Structure formats: structure tokens, C-alpha cells
Amino acid sequence: MCCQERVTPSDECLASLLGDEVSPIFLALAAMMSAVGAAHAQAPLVLLQQYRCYSCHADDEAKTSPAYVDDTYRGDPQAVGIVAAAISKGIHDTGPWHMPPNRGSDIDAKKIVEYILSLKK
Ligand code: HEC
User: Is 69 helix (H, G, I), strand (E, B) or coil?
Assistant: First the structure.
């Protein structure tokens, strides 16, 4: 039996185990699982909306606040740590406006910064 030899059985293997009449259910399940994967990939965007970061920022356009693509620490190997800490503490830098501290978790802040740094100009 193929399935007993594998840690993760292949699709065909599962389908043969389940039989033809249940394979639509399996397909629906597979579709659901990939939908969950997609939602996971969007998590930083969900966070940016949840924390209302976009009321002051945009990805690629400076509003009252710098555009994310222009992040000062872009290219710095320490960027994730530095910028995530800055988001949690708030930013009082050179600009005319200041950024309030964010009360979200450090993990959220890191995910957000990874997203910001991944933006392409
Ligand atoms: C009330 C408006 C406001 C909100 C809300 C806000 N920011 Fe800011 N942010 C600013 C301002 C203003 C600056 C520039 C501060 C300065 O230069 O003194 C800034 C700077 C930054 C920077 C630094 C850019 C750089 O060059 O390093 C990052 C990153 C950033 N914000 C991310 C976020 C994230 C993530 C959130 C949501 C958790 C957020 N901001 C919410 C106003 C805001």
C-alpha cells in the first residue's frame, strides 16, 4: 500500500484510498487548503489594515508619512529588528509628523516589516 510508506501521501494515493465517489470531497478539501495558504500569505496586509497603518502610509506613495518602499533601512541586514522595534515604540524622526507607538505584538511588527522590505520600487 502506497500510503503506508509515505509520511505525506500523494494526491493520487489518497484518491485511490478514498475511491472515486469521494474524490470531489477531496478536491474541495484541497481547494480549501490552498485558500488557507493564500490567506496566510496576505497576513501582513491584513495586519497593516487592522492597525490602521494605511491611514498615514501607502506602499509606494508618500502621504503625511513616508511610503513603505522608501524605508530608510532598506538593504540594512538589521532592518527587520530595527524597524519592528521602531514601529512598536513609535517614530520621532526628522519629519514634520510623528508616528504613534503601535501596541501590536512584536511578531506582527516583524511580519509587517518583512512585507515592507519586500516591496519593489
Ligand atoms: C498617525 C499616523 C501614522 C500611523 C497610524 C502609522 N504611522 Fe508609520 N510613520 C508616521 C510618520 C509621520 C512617520 C515618519 C516619522 C518621522 O520621520 O519622524 C512614520 C514612519 C514609519 C516608518 C519608518 C520609515 C523608515 O524610513 O524607516 C515605518 C516603517 C512605519 N512608519 C510603519 C508603520 C506601521 C507598520 C504602522 C502601523 C502599525 C504605522 N507606521 C502607522 C505616521 C504614522
Answer: helix
Q: Whose CA is nearest to atom 5 of ligand 1?
A: 53
Q: Which residues pair with 99 in a beta bridge?
A: 91
All domains of the chain in start order, with CATH: 2-41 (no CATH), 43-118 (1.10.760.10)
**Mutation choice for ligand 1 from 46, 65, 112, 121, CB with most ligand atoms inside 8 A:** 65
Q: What is the C-alpha separation between 40 and 14, in angstroms, rounded?
A: 25
Distance CA 84, CA 53 (A): 13
| Residue having the nearest C-alpha atom to atom 10 of ligand 1 | 99
Mutate to test the pocket of ligand 1, among 74, 78, 98, 99 (most ligand atoms within 8 A of CB): 99
**Of 120, 114, 105, which Cα lies nearest the Cα of 50?**
105
Provide the whole-model pTM: 0.72
pLDDT tens for residues 68-100? 999 999 999 999 999 999 999 999 888 788 999
